[in-house]
Amino acid sequence: MKKGNQRKHETRDSWHVSPEQKRPPPPKVEPPKRIKVPPMPAVTIVPEPGRWLWTCRAGFEAQLWEELAWGKKNPFLLGPGLVSSDPFTGENPLPQPPTFARMGFMISDVVRTPADAAASLPDEPTKVQVWVPDTDVANARSGEAAAWEDTIAAIRAEEGLVDPETPWKASEAGGWLGQVCLIGPGVAVVGRVRARDAISLSAGGRARMKRTQDAPSRAAMKLDEAIDWYNVTPGKGDLCVDLGSAPGGWTRRLVERGARVWSVDPASLSPDVLKLPRVKHFQESAFDFTPEHPVDWLFCDMAWRPLEVAQLLGKWCRKGYAAQLIANIKLPMKDKLPTLFRVRHTLVEAGWKQVRMRQLYHDRDEITVTARRV
Ligand SMILES: C[S@@+](CC[C@H](N)C(=O)[O-])C[C@H]1O[C@@H](n2cnc3c(N)ncnc32)[C@H](O)[C@@H]1O
Description:
The chain is α/β, with parallel strands linked by helices and 374 residues long. Helix content is 26%, strand content 23%. Helix 9 (306-318) runs parallel beside helix 10. S-adenosylmethionine (SAM) is lined by residues 2, 4-5, 217, 219-220, 243-250, 264-267, 285-287, 301-304.
């Protein structure tokens, strides 16, 4: 990681806060005890109807499993990218739904043909999504998933059912997302979830964002997905601070959406981004930066220690520097869950409201956090 965290005394603090407010104590709440994750089964196990099926980024099954175990949901590792659990209601030490889940639904059936899948889906308006877990082996069967989806759509049309064309239309109309997960060749787990309650409207939670030709970094796609998920868009007239902004993918996207951006990073911005209107680069550590006046949005994609980043974001809330937050928190450590628990508590203790955390499709060893101050 880059060395950029040498905090100096603040000199531009116009809010006149007491010294003890400047460095918050670490959160007092301890994370739940660790639970030993069982080994991954050699062959994918078919889950039982009545349980929930969850999918996650391949390699993060243990995190999802432990999160569900913390919530006492009796999780079971099924195979790469797949975990099952008891029905998902009630309390959980981490936010609901689980941070590491891309999609989840109640299993109604396990079937072997598209016709059986169609018979198991609701007669009410349903956008049917057939998907495979996001692993190399399963992705090789995505052609089979597309063929199932076409056959199911044809069967439903023959039955005279009128389905919404897109998941977004299903959500607007209060309809269902029919879920068909091909967990192995010719074996599918079927279920449904109200589109409005779904973790994601994208099949299998894979919210692919379009890569624009002139974006300076792939990080821009992470931001687009995060904004879609938050469902409020920074726009014309908004003032955004972008912490850890170089080379400038997020800053560019925010400007393209009409916002003004104070872009903070000790590293250089790409010359294209520097040339954009409404961008001001503060070439300094985010730990030293103090805004001249409160702003609308705080964005943060700093490659720095998660707990220190969380404390910095907490300070921004306590001091009323920003109204809304979208941050990407890096989690390179093996034990991610205790860190995530502390990050969440730091943000909540600092006063951030509606704190949501999710490993989005474009997130790798990291998660996205959104929150608002009021
Ligand atoms: C993943 S990159 C950000 C990419 C950026 N969001 C984009 O779209 O181009 C992480 C950045 O965090 C910056 N960083 C690390 N420590 C920092 C600090 N203390 N203050 C500000 N930026 C920091 C690094 O210089 C690096 O540019």
